[in-house]
Amino acid sequence: MRFRQARPEEAAEILALYKSLLGQEGVTWNEEYPDAGCVAEDLRQKGLFVLEEEGRIVAAVSAVRDEEMEREAVWDAALSPAVMLERVGVRAEAQGRGLARRAIEGAMREMKARGFRGARYLVGPNNLRAQAAYRPLAFRFAGEIAAYGENWLCFEREI
Q: What integer pLDDT is reported at residue 132 of this predicted model?
């Protein structure tokens, strides 16, 4: 298993991974989101990472700066600059092996090395699988917000 930064030529494979997860319990994604533009922006920011197993991408995670989200009142300003951990996805056949957690840990290590102080994420109240993946990573509950037409639980930690 290898953690690494995603390459532009992998954009279609990563988007296909995301789309393969539509309809899973707790997943708030839909046909419009995430889209190719999200993947392209994550690649442009050099914040898209993958876990590769036997030459195949089995997980992806974005760790990108989101200045609009950073202005939300729930966040601890002492953890800025921070990255938002977004679009965490693990192939269905690879789920249950701790790969989401492993990808998140790798992204946080990389972003800390780049000078970021904190990591944050939003999770839907009903996405219990995602909440379980993050729980052992010692994030603290920061509050709740309404954004993107949904209600979200907000978590953050120092990296």
A: 82
Place of tokens 């699988």: 129
Tokens of 80: 């800025």
Q: What is the dihedral of CA 146, 104, 107, 138, to 10 degrees?
A: 80
Say if strands 56-64 and 48-53 run parallel, antiparallel, or are unpaired.
antiparallel
Confidence at residue 4, expressed as pLDDT on a 0 to 100 scale: 98
- Can you list the positions of beta strands (E) in 17-139? 48-53, 56-64, 82-90, 118-123
The verdict on whether omega for the bond into residue 125 sits within 30 degrees of 0, i.e. cis, is: no
Letter string b/e over residues 107-145, b meaning 16 or more CB atoms within 10 A of that residue's CB: bbebbeeeebebbbbbbeeebebbbebbeebebeebeeb
pLDDT at 128: 84
- What residues are paired with 16 via a beta bridge? none
All domains of the chain in start order, with CATH: 2-158 (3.40.630.30)
Which stretches of the chain drop beneath a pLDDT of 70? Answer: none
Type of residue at 11: A
